[in-house]
Amino acid sequence: MLLEEVEYVRPTNLEDALAVLADVDGAAPLAGGQSLVNVLKNRVASVDLLVDISRLAELRTIKRTPGGGLDVGACVTYDELDRSPLVRESHFTLGEVAAHIEDQQIRNKGTIGGNCCLSDPTNNLPPILVALDAVMNLRSTSARRSVQAAEFFKGYFATALESGELLVSVTVPPMPARSGAGYASLLVAADAKAMARAAAWIQLGTGGLTITSARVALARVANVPVRDAGVEARLVGAEASDAAVRDACSVAAEGLRPIDDVHGSSHYRLEMARVMAHRAVMQAVDQATAGRNGSESARRGGRA
Amino acid sequence: MTERGASHAITVIVNGERVNRIVSARQLLVHFLRDVLGLTGTHIGCDTGNCGACTVVVDGKLVKSCMLLAPQADGSTIETVESLAADGQLSDLQRAFNEHHALQCGYCTPGMLMSATYLLRQNPDPSADDVRRAIRGNVCRCTGYVNIVEAIRSAVSAGSAGRAAAGAAEEA
Questions:
Q1: How many independent structural domains does chain B possess?
Q2: Which residue, of A48, A258, B19, B171, has the greatest Cβ tally within 10 A?
């Protein structure tokens, strides 16, 4: 299948890339291309100039932030996230989510920035980034701004990015002691698309098993990952027991109407969203109590 | 910055040979390999990144060559299925595919071989589960995968037995 006629340019630094993206109508950034190339084949979008940002050194690094968080360049691939000792050490679940995206070939090219900017509701990284309260760092030729992940995803293939803006990195806050993350999906096949998905982050109090803070993001119940305030309110102050968490998650996705499709009815997806929320939170509890983010118990529970 | 345009001069090393060509910006790498260089071992199954028949190794990374534009490969080193038996001798892996009847129509085989080659470079002793995950991106509509997994696993033991025998011979 041939693409329509298109121009290509590969800037050697970020400033040049931003300038081209700002100056040329119909310019689009090309990172891993694992969705964009198909979009172009299918003529779903029309692009006049592809600006290849995939080799820009400024977008290719994973750095530790002073507090123990991560700063992940937009063009870091899923495979690099999966294999990064830095990611695994502090944010095990993020590495595990990346490790289960589709297949090895796609993981070698697809990028965290592309996964987020496409904002396909089936994409794996947006819900975990919302649960981890990540911050999306945007640049244009004249300005920089940061947007909370929960505010970045706006709808089907729509984000907070404005014309001429580029996502340059994602900052993931540190995981404090006695905090943990979890991620659970009901998949149509191994490492394939999810029918229901939840990502969770919880903080336990210093003594005992009381949840003092919680973030639960549901995917596939709406066009974008949604924080579930109802579940979070029920989790805070609750004991991190299976029964209490199940009870809190029983109200997940209330008022939402997931789509019906060949893989499952709206009603089924809603029920499964609750099951996934429960599993994700219990994984997070496991990780928090294991004391170490990359612990064996987290490893067992952390399958994406 | 490369010059902006609808065609680009690229230099790539394909199976050890340096190649300079002018490519159109919209040309897929798989079409460059097959139509320009005549390396038709790399197959096109779906053209949408789903089937893996076009899998090659670019700069040491396994990729689907229908999901990459030719200018994106500029400056890179590319290995295609033709590199596996470059001296006319089948590799251990290719022999194992033959012996285990790991192909019927053979259409997916070049991609399977490249994914298996990549796996064995990363993990010289993969479990059956590792093998299944490694060929997750390669679709075979004939075999049901069982013989492919067996072939790849037997290539591991053939390779390590071969290396052990060579080591023993050296010691003796």
A1: 2
A2: A258
Q: Look at residue B2 and tell me if it is in a domain.
A: no
pTM exceeds cut of 0.90? yes
- The rounded mean pLDDT for chain B is 92
Q: What is the pLDDT of residues A182-216, one digit of tens each?
A: 999 999 999 999 999 999 999 999 988 999 999 99
Which value does ipTM take for this structure? Answer: 0.92
* CA dist., res. A179 & res. B34, Å (int): 52
Rounded to whole angstroms, how far apart are CA atoms A213 and A207?
14
| B148 and B165 fall within a common domain | yes
B97 and B154 housed in the same domain: yes
**B49–A34 CB contact, under 8 Å:** yes
**Shortest CA distance from B134: residue in chain A:** A104
pLDDT tens for each residue of B112-137: 999 999 999 999 999 999 999 999 99
State the CB neighbour count (10 A cutoff) for residue A51. 25
pLDDT of residue B1: 78
Contact state of B48 with A104 under an 8 Å Cβ cutoff:
no
Pick the residue of A3, A103, A191 with the most B CBs within 10 A to test the interface with B by mutation.
A103
Alpha-carbon distance of B10 to B21, in angstroms, equals 6
Q: What is the CATH number of domain A57-172?
A: 3.30.465.10
User: Considering only CA atoms, which of A257, A303, A256 is closest in space to residue A283?
Assistant: A303
Question: Do the domain assignments include residue B30?
Answer: yes
Provide the domain limits for residue B111.
92-171
* Architecture in CATH of A179-301: 2-Layer Sandwich (3.30)
The pLDDT, as a whole number, for residue B159 is: 60
Domain A7-52 fold? 3.30.43
pLDDT for residue A210: 98
Strand ranges (DSSP E) for A56-175?
62-64, 70-73, 135-139, 144-148, 153-155, 158-159, 166-172
- Which is nearest to A186 in space by CA: A284, A276, A298, A52? A276
Please tell me which residue of chain A has the smallest CA distance to B114.
A105
Low-confidence residues of chain A: pLDDT under 70: 1, 291-304
- Mean pLDDT value of segment B150-165: 72
Q: Where along chain A do its domains lie?
A: 7-52, 57-172, 179-301
